[in-house]
Amino acid sequence: MKNIKLIEVPSEIGAGTRGASLGIDAIKIAALDFMSNFFIHFPSEKIPHENKLLYEPIESPYAKRIKGIMTLYERVSKAVSDSMRNNFFPVVLSGDHSISGATIAGIRMAKPKSRLGVIWIDAHADLHTPYTTPSGNVHGMPLAISINEDNLDYAVHELDDETRKCWNALKTIGKIAPKVLPEDIVFISLRDFEKEEKHLIDKHGMKVITTNEVRRKGVENVVRSVTRYLSDCTDIYVSFDVDSLDASITKGTGTPVSNGLREREVEDLISKFMQNRKVCCFEIAEVNPTLDKENLMSEIAFNILQRSVNILMMN
């Protein structure tokens, strides 16, 4: 039986819309509405955030609030790494998705010799860099951080020294770079990305499974083929951005995109992945209750969280 530890990161300084820092509390409210005492069952650690930076002028336009994000990366990677070293399975509840780069760093710091596979369930590729970003929001960059990629072939921005220094520090945190090989990343339901990101996907031959493929082949077959694809990895991290769900289901996320997965499909996918003993960490990100009706997204996220953790407990 796995010992679960919840790591709560109510940070949204990597996002473009406001409100994702409230996502964790909204998921807890959903648990209460379902009469569940889920959040009393497990030890949890709350990481101090830097959301005060939202009120301050932006210093680095191509990697907004990157200094605050560096501080968070240090805190989160340490929390994830410490909990894994103490034989906990970290379940990370994040505000915006920039945090996943820190989670990945923490896994590798705890297991420096491991080969880490990443299952990225997200409408977006999150492969931008400060050199290519259209928005400057770091939640579009965590996988580029993790594979130690600048994508200079497609650079459109010149970086100031300070931003470049911070960016390099993010990529090399834990003194391991890259943390993940690009060919060990599997995108599921990816459908909204820019040519700069497509360049990296093609260049590295990264695996993409579309929403239609999930429907056509069925969850069972997709999970089997992903498991086979990542068979050389010693550990697997599953990252779930709620915008992988179809925009028709819910507005409760900052960047909804149509042609996404149905709630049941995501639930089945994640719970089947959780049966794999190589999975060592699970993260949920980008729930934004300020954009939502009746806390719907948080309820969906809670159902997925509860079912996943139940399976981990039985494993």
Biggest sheet features: 8 strands, parallel
Q: How many β-strands, per DSSP?
A: 8
Element order: H for helix, E for strand: EHHEHEHEHHEHEHHEHEH
**CATH structural fold name:** Arginase, Chain A
- N→C terminal distance: 6 Å
CATH architecture: 3-Layer(aba) Sandwich
Mean model confidence by pLDDT: 97
Low-confidence stretches: none
Strand order of the largest sheet: 2-1-3-8-7-4-5-6
Q: Quick one: CATH superfamily?
A: Ureohydrolase domain
CATH class, please? Alpha Beta
Number of domains: 1
Question: How many helical stretches?
Answer: 11
What value does the Rg take, in angstroms?
Answer: 18 Å
Give the CA-based shape: globular
SS-based class = alpha/beta
Q: Report strand %.
A: 5-15%
Fraction of residues in helix = 25-40%
What does this 3D model show about the protein?
- The longest helix has 20 residues, at 66-85.
- This protein has helices at 23-33, 38-41, 66-85, 100-110, 142-146, 161-171, 195-204, 211-217, 219-229, 263-274, 296-314, and strands at residues 3-9, 44-46, 88-94, 116-121, 185-188, 207-209, 235-241, 279-285.
- It is globular and about 50 Å long.
- The protein has 315 residues and is an alpha/beta fold.
- Helix 3 (66-85) packs parallel to helix 6 (161-171), helix 8 crosses helix 9 (219-229) and helix 9 (219-229) crosses helix 10.
- The chain contains 11 helices and 8 strands.
- The N and C termini lie close together (6 Å).
- The protein has one domain (3-314): Ureohydrolase domain (Arginase, Chain A).
- Strands 2-1-3-8-7-4-5-6 form an 8-stranded parallel beta sheet, sandwiched between helices.
- Strand 5, helix 7 (195-204) and strand 6 (207-209) form a beta-alpha-beta unit.
